[in-house]
Amino acid sequence: GYGHDPEARERAARDEERALSEAAEALRELGLEPRVLSGGSTPTAGRWRPGPVDELRPGVYVFNDAQQLAMGCCGVDDLALAAASTVISVPAPDRFVLDAGSKVLGADRSAWVTGHGYLPQYPEATITALWEHHAVVHLPEGAPAPRLGAVLAVVPNHVCQPV
After folding, report:
1. pLDDT in tens, 12-47
2. Which of 36, 38, 72, 152 gives a 20 to 30 Å CA spacing to 144?
3. In terms of DSSP bridges, do strands 151-154 and 83-92 run parallel, antiparallel, or are they unpaired?
């Protein structure tokens, strides 16, 4: 696993670098020269330095997602994938319903993420409930609700399923 704060991500990158170096050395001791030393993850992608690694495989790095945003691995402007979702109900001033659910957003929810996705137009909102085709969003007190029929971007917690 990897850590979710910058220091833990740095340690994880160094641990992975060390493990790859040790594996390469073990192969060389057997008379085998490794052709490629491949490693990486999205949280450690920005932490690599020149050394034993030939290629990185940083998972969701190309898109980023709400999990990466919550960990500080990317900024809002680095989020490259969102689902367009329509507001289909506004049952209360602090709550609305979207027509995107787990089939569109995925159901992954890591312990360090609040809610089931991130709404760039409503960054303080929380998707509190998720069904296959619908999501319930709660707004902080006093925040204006979107109008019925408004189309909002929703960044999934984890982009793998939606992609």
Report:
1. 888 888 898 999 999 999 999 999 988 877 777 777
2. 72
3. antiparallel
